């Protein structure tokens, strides 16, 4: 399950369109159910706490901040690319960041803005082609379960790189292209109704090795990769097993 579909922006292909209109339309139709933990985004509600644990640890490691602080992102800017209805933006705002969420489906950003307002959070949500928005650079860029929905992955990653501040941190997650992910995330999850039909296209999943090569071509270095695995006892959890899904941290190499 993804948080949305998105496009690209500043970088080697400024303004290059990477969005698939049918993907944006698919997720836009789900917007009203996004915050319902028992609705069509139920899988995201189970996945989000697992990702947040990894993200918080990555923030602490990257900026060597106070691990006890409730606002480790105070004074920093964050961009969530493919924000959906704001499931990740809101926790980032609570961590103290000045947050911008971008999504290709305007239905999603409308729902996200209303939910943030109701929660008393000041989050900027911007719909549309990221490449036309001129948002600038951010200390933290997150992109969860998005690249597998993007048509031109190289251009998209180039644009993510263009939004990353020189000492910034990029965090991405993606389903791995394995037989397990095909059986679990596509055939199984969609058949059981855990994920809306048509959400995943297995051939578009990206392996960790492929993603690392694509990021390296944009001058970025993967610094840590962990799996997001599932077991009946633990549910979804961070693991060394990357056969289902994985999450990684990226930065620019130190000169």
Automatic annotation (TrEMBL):
This is Ubiquinone biosynthesis O-methyltransferase. The keyword Hydrolase does not apply. Belongs to the methyltransferase superfamily. UbiG/COQ3 family. Signal peptide: none annotated. It holds the Pfam family Methyltransf_23. It comes from the Bacteria. SUPFAM superfamilies: S-adenosyl-L-methionine-dependent methyltransferases. GO terms for molecular function: 2-polyprenyl-6-hydroxyphenol methylase activity; 3-demethylubiquinol 3-O-methyltransferase activity. PROSITE patterns: FUMARATE_LYASES.
């Amino acid at each position: 399950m993804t948080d949305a579909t998105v496009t690209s922006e500043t970088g080697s292909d400024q303004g290059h369109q990477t969005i698939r209109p049918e993907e944006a339309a698919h997720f836009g139709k789900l917007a009203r159910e996004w915050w319902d933990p028992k609705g069509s985004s139920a899988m995201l509600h189970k996945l989000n706490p697992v990702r947040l644990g990894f993200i918080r640890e990555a923030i602490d490691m990257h900026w060597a901040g106070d691990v006890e602080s409730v606002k480790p992102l105070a004074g920093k800017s964050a961009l969530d690319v493919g924000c959906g209805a704001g499931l990740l933006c809101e926790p980032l705002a609570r961590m103290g960041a000045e947050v911008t969420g971008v999504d290709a489906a305007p239905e999603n950003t409308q729902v996200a803005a209303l939910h943030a307002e109701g929660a008393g959070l000041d989050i900027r949500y911007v719909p549309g082609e990221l490449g036309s928005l001129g948002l600038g650079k951010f200390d933290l860029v997150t992109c969860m379960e998005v690249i597998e929905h993007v048509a031109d992955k190289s251009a998209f990653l180039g644009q993510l790189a263009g939004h990353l501040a020189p000492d910034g941190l990029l965090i991405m997650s993606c389903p791995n292209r394995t037989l397990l992910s095909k059986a679990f995330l596509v055939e199984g999850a969609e058949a059981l109704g855990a994920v809306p039909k048509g959400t995943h296209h297995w051939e578009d999943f990206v392996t960790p090795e492929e993603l690392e090569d694509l990021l390296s071509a944009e001058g970025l270095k993967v610094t840590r990769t962990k799996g997001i695995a599932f077991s009946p006892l633990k549910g979804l959890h961070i693991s060394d097993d990357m056969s289902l899904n994985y999450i990684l941290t990226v930065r620019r190499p130190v000169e």
